[in-house]
């Protein structure tokens, strides 16, 4: 379930990338770069992987899915090779979890 979504703009006003946080057992955060069609998925333990050639419509389907984890396992993982990029720090993970908790309190 999508908790927060931020569109970061380029200097020309177009969307450079989208950063979203999810309440999910598996997926913590994603960043999608529109122009390069790169998707970065940070999993609940902080491991972050890069996926290439993800079109905007496909990304939107992923973001809108009833279960982002199921979408990932059925439509992204088997079709798109992953490259491990980095691991979020415990401080970063805790910050995203606080965002999720705050969203739950607002509901």
Task: Describe the overall structure.
- This protein has 107 residues and is of the alpha+beta class.
- It has one domain.
- Helices cover 33% and strands 37% of the residues.
- It has three helices and six strands.
- It has a six-stranded antiparallel β-sheet with strand order 1-2-3-4-5-6.
- The radius of gyration is 13 Å and the shape is globular.
- The two termini are 13 Å apart.
- The mean pLDDT is 94.
Radius of gyration from the CA trace?
13 Å
Strand order, main sheet: write it out: 1-2-3-4-5-6
Helix content: 25-40%
| Structure summary, number of beta strands | 6
Largest sheet: 6 strands, antiparallel
Q: Helical segment tally? A: 3
Spans with pLDDT under 50 lasting ≥5 residues? Answer: none
- Which oligomeric form is depicted? single chain
SSE order in H/E notation?
EEEEEHHEH
Number of domains: 1
**Average pLDDT reading:** 94
- The secondary-structure class comes to alpha+beta
Query: Which term fits the overall shape?
Result: globular
How is this structure best summarized?
The protein is α+β, with helices and mostly antiparallel strands and 107 residues long. It is 33% helix and 37% strand.
């Amino acid at each position: 379930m999508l908790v927060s979504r931020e569109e970061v703009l380029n200097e020309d006003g177009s969307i450079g990338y989208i950063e979203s946080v999810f309440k999910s057992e598996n997926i913590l955060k994603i960043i999608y770069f529109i122009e390069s069609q790169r998707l970065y998925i940070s999993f609940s333990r902080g491991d972050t992987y890069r996926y290439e050639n993800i079109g905007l419509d496909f990304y939107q389907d992923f973001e809108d899915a009833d279960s982002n984890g199921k979408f990932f396992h059925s439509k992204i993982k088997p079709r798109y090779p992953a490259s491990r990029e980095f691991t979020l720090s415990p401080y970063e993970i805790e910050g995203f979890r606080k965002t999720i908790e705050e969203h739950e309190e607002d509901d």
